[in-house]
Amino acid sequence: MSENRVALITGAGRGIGATIARTLAAEKTDIAIVDYSDESAAAETLAALKEAGVTARYYRCDVSDFAATKAVVDQIVKDFGKIDILVNNAGITADKLIMRMEEADWDRVLSINLKGCFNMIKHVTPYMMRKRYGRIVSISSVVGLMGNAGQANYAASKAGIVGLTKTVAKEFGARNITANAVAPGFIKTAMTDALTEEQKQAMYKLIPLGALGETQDIANAVKFLVSDDARYITGVVLKVDGGMYI
Ligand code: NAD
Fold it and tell me: Closest Cα to residue 211, out of 219, 200, 223, 221?
């Protein structure tokens, strides 16, 4: 059994999840990455985690698959001995106006972004309950709080995470398991890098702090919510959006 705390982070092969993994590793947390890309896509992240001196392993799994997530959670507990922290970060978009949105666009986004969180919570909480300790953080979005034209499926999935988180907080609080959500605004990623300067200027006007967020801003919020400093915080949605949605 690991002496360090153990975090299972979904979608941590790249992007925000990878920064969360590196940030928790710097706190001496062992990391189990669950991602459906090929392991080679996470090579850089895994190398950085090992460099930080923690145990890090990669598990290829689609979070929307109930049976596969059960198997992967059981395997992670076999390998690490426990799971102290669950970060539900895996997510996708399939943006279209409702007029053009197909049933498949809706189902795919809801099953990865929302059912994926349920699957992981369902399978991880029995282990956390036995230890009477758990920290669960799910990555929502300000879009789930404010809506966004062209993102009905995504916004609904991210709003669903809010209801799920508050319910988990109520059902598992007595077992010393906290559940919180982080709602990022616009974060600098490969996607936002591709925007034109004009598009970026239009975005800045919507953000009181006048800049895009960094993946590190999200990781810092997660780091706080899983720390002992946040032991009395559960059921909150922490917006990390430069004031975009107030
Ligand atoms: P990203 O696309 O760079 O990374 C997402 C990761 O999730 C990838 O490694 C991908 O392989 C993995 N993934 C996708 N579907 C999966 C599945 N079914 N099973 C397992 N893994 C899967 O995205 P990102 O920008 O780093 O976003 C991470 C999270 O933050 C997402 O939930 C996203 O909705 C949320 N978010 C992002 C922003 C932003 O501006 N980037 C804003 C608000 C919320």
Answer: 200
